[in-house]
Design goal:
The protein is of the alpha/beta class. Among the domains are: 91 residues, 3-Layer(aba) Sandwich (Rossmann fold); 35 residues, no CATH class. The protein has six helices and ten strands, in the order H-E-H-E-H-E-E-H-E-E-E-H-E-H-E-E. The protein has a seven-stranded mixed beta sheet with strand order 3-2-1-4-5-10-9, sandwiched between helices. It is globular, with a radius of gyration of 16 Å. The termini are far apart. It comes from Pseudoalteromonas haloplanktis (Alteromonas haloplanktis).
């Protein structure tokens, strides 16, 4: 198998790291949901050695993630867990949960299940970091996001760029408070929530 590669991961990793560092400075463990190619996990585990970084995804992506991990052999980087938002999560508690470019891919029902899982598995005072595109007051932040949303929904009507206000309201229902909403390159955002 050829090692998977995402140019978007390469483009955004330094910008995300800069925003993540203060949010994760007091954390000891992070669960990444939807690790995809595995590129983010390798980069962040290397740059944030105080963290135990747990990757997870559906089984179809595990081999690619392992190829990235095998190249670096980091003690704080863990093999991918089998995690499907339709089912229970295969771990106990963590200090932080990170997910990138997942909310516009999965259905709203699975986003609800994501926050239910956060409620069960995030330690007190833990943080949740969500990266990706969002709409604000029903409006896209750029014409390209509008076009991207149309493409997503043509492939899967249950997917699409989410309303920030709806995501924040759902997070609040599960005991989270928004700490920051940082604009990122390529019309993305990084939302950071904290468990109250």
């Amino acid at each position: 198998m050829t090692k998977p590669f995402s140019q978007a991961c390469e483009n955004n990793k330094n910008h995300i790291l800069k925003a993540l560092q203060p949010a994760l400075q007091n954390a000891g463990s992070v669960l990444e949901i939807g690790s995809g190619t595995g590129q983010h996990s390798v980069f962040f585990a290397k740059k944030l050695p105080h963290l135990q970084w747990y990757t997870s995804d559906r089984e179809v992506n595990h081999q690619g993630i392992k190829l990235w991990h095998d190249e670096v052999q980091l003690a704080n980087l863990h093999p991918p867990l089998l995690l499907d938002l339709n089912y229970s999560w295969p771990l106990n508690k963590v200090d932080a949960i990170y997910t990138a470019n997942t909310f516009h891919i999965v259905s709203w029902e699975l986003i609800t299940r994501f926050f239910a899982g956060v409620n069960q598995h995030l330690n007190q005072q833990g943080v949740v970091c969500v990266y990706g595109p969002f709409k604000y007051k029903g409006e896209f932040t750029s014409p390209s996001n509008d076009e991207f949303n149309s493409l997503l929904q043509s492939r899967d009507p249950l997917s699409g760029i989410r309303d920030f206000e709806a995501v924040e309201q759902l997070a609040v229902q599960y005991g989270l408070k928004l700490l920051s909403d940082t604009a990122m390159p390529a019309n993305n955002q990084l939302l950071i929530f904290k468990r109250q």
